[in-house]
Amino acid sequence: MPFIVSLSMSRPYLLDVTLSVAACHLRHMYQASGSLNEATSDTIAACRVAEHYQQSLAIRSFNRALAEPFDQEGSDSVLMTSMMFNLLSFALDEDDDPSLSWVFSKAPDRLAWISLSMGLDTLLMNTKQFHDQSILRPIFDASDDEEKTYHGDGIKSLSKVPSHWLQLCGLDFASDDAEHIFYEPVRVLAELFSTPANQQSLFLYVGWFGKVGVEFRSLLEQDSEPVMWLLGYWLGLLCRFDHQWWLSARAKRDYRAIWIWLDKRKVRRRAGAEGMMWRQLMMDLEGATQQPLGIEIWTLHRPEPVEICD
């Protein structure tokens, strides 16, 4: 993107975060090569140092920029920077072991990557007046379809949402409260299930995060099972994009971690209607990585099976 170079000449935070992403990408490429030796390990370590150093520089000047009034170039610059911060927070450092996921962590900052993603949504609202003339307009346009299925104004029908998903969320087909914490997240997940995973639809998938907010994060901190399932299903959908270097490792790891977390709570063994609901939900969660037959796809990937121990 040549415009990044042009904008970053007067906005060092954009240049610094771009260099951080470049170092992160290079590190991932070396790690994915599969031929680790002493020289490669040294290179990976150097990439990691550069990645964190450039990111720290970007954060300092970015925070100052947020306190200043926006113009068109300023709006584009802070939005691009925020998007790249999100990319860096989503890209795993190196370990894809589900047991090391935030899902099983008690660290107070375990959900920091989610908080960072929510910050982008606030920035988008605060810069809305500049979006029509933005150089990021193609990204904005790619975040919805012509029918405004995924975003747009007005109440959207829940007709595509499976009944057991609605049961999990405390909704039904007659529900019309679009402000309900689960209304839009579960509706959009149902739409994404049958959305082809390709280069054009990536922003439709990642845009789901704009449907969750502070209350959703708060429930996640409290180990809410509905919230964990919804997030796990979204991560399963993201596993369809196994070509995205910054996305696929975290999606696969945390998707598997949430599946294990729910299974350890023995949700499928619960009695009565609740147990039946969870058995259906866990089947759906397992199949989230796969698209229905007959839908054009780009790449599909089912993460390796994980042995579940009681």
How would you describe the overall organization of this protein?
With 310 residues, this protein is mostly helical. The chain has two domains: 1-68; 98-292, no CATH class. The protein has 13 helices and no strands. It has helices spanning 2-8, 12-32, 38-66, 72-90, 112-126, 137-141, 163-169, 183-193, 202-206, 214-221, 225-238, 248-264, 272-286. Helix 4 (72-90) packs antiparallel against helix 5. It is globular, with a radius of gyration of 20 Å. Mean pLDDT is 90; it is low at 296-310. It comes from Beauveria brongniartii RCEF 3172. This is C6 transcription factor. GO terms for molecular function: DNA-binding transcription activator activity, RNA polymerase II-specific.
Quick description:
The protein has 310 residues and is mainly alpha-helical. It contains 13 helices and no strands.
Can you give keywords for this protein?
310 residues; 2 domains; disordered C terminus; 13 helices; mainly alpha
